[in-house]
Amino acid sequence: MLMRITSFIALYLMSGYGLAMSFAGLTHEINFQPHSAQISAEEIRSFIDWQSEKKREFSGGEYDVFLIKNTAMQVTDALLKKRAETVVQLMNNLGIQTEVSVEERFNKVKYQELIDRLNSAVVVIQPPCTKTHDCGPQPISGSKPPGPNK
């Protein structure tokens, strides 16, 4: 699990530096209202659309869900447990198995991005090509390799 998380982070960081293939779009945030574990119909639709697109692009993959706990900001164990169960149930209904990870923050939140993420679950997909190390450009089916110039 730790190796997979490290791989995700490395891929995510490298994706912004102009590699041959972009790994943008491998994460999706499911937003909750403060102090709520319910997912709105709009968020469900957005997640289904994202997941369907990833399924077409990658023909599968492994999914992980990340949540942030911060008791000082009233994101407690009980709330996170309900949110995790809700997200896992949604994903199970779509035939997706997943693992849930919780990052605990003890201090007051210092960054707006983190404040925004306190009320969301971040879903990450690891495409199958990351395991086989063949995520580079793929030939177009039916095309012929270039021959020598004449």
- Kindly report the CATH topology: 60s Ribosomal Protein L30, Chain: A
End-to-end distance, in Å? 52 Å
Shape: elongated
Estimated structural class: alpha+beta
Helix content: 25-40%
Following the backbone from N to C, one meets helices and strands in this order, namely: HEHEHEHEH
Main beta sheet: 4 strands, mixed
- Number of separate strands: 4
CATH architecture: 2-Layer Sandwich
Overall number of domains: 1
**Total helical segments:** 5
Instruction: Average the pLDDT over all residues and give the rounded result.
Output: 75
Strand order of the largest sheet: 1-4-2-3
Characterise the protein shown here.
By secondary structure, the protein is α+β, with helices and mostly antiparallel strands. The chain has a single domain (28-132), classed as 60s Ribosomal Protein L30, Chain: A (2-Layer Sandwich). The protein is 39% helix and 18% strand. It has helices spanning 2-14, 41-58, 77-93, 112-117, 129-132, and strands spanning 27-31, 62-69, 98-104, 120-126. The chain has a four-stranded mixed β-sheet with strand order 1-4-2-3, covered by helices on one side.
Secondary-structure blueprint of this entry?
Layout: H1 2-14, E1 27-31, H2 41-58, E2 62-69, H3 77-93, E3 98-104, H4 112-117, E4 120-126, H5 129-132
Parallel strand pairs: 2-3
Antiparallel strand pairs: 1-4, 2-4
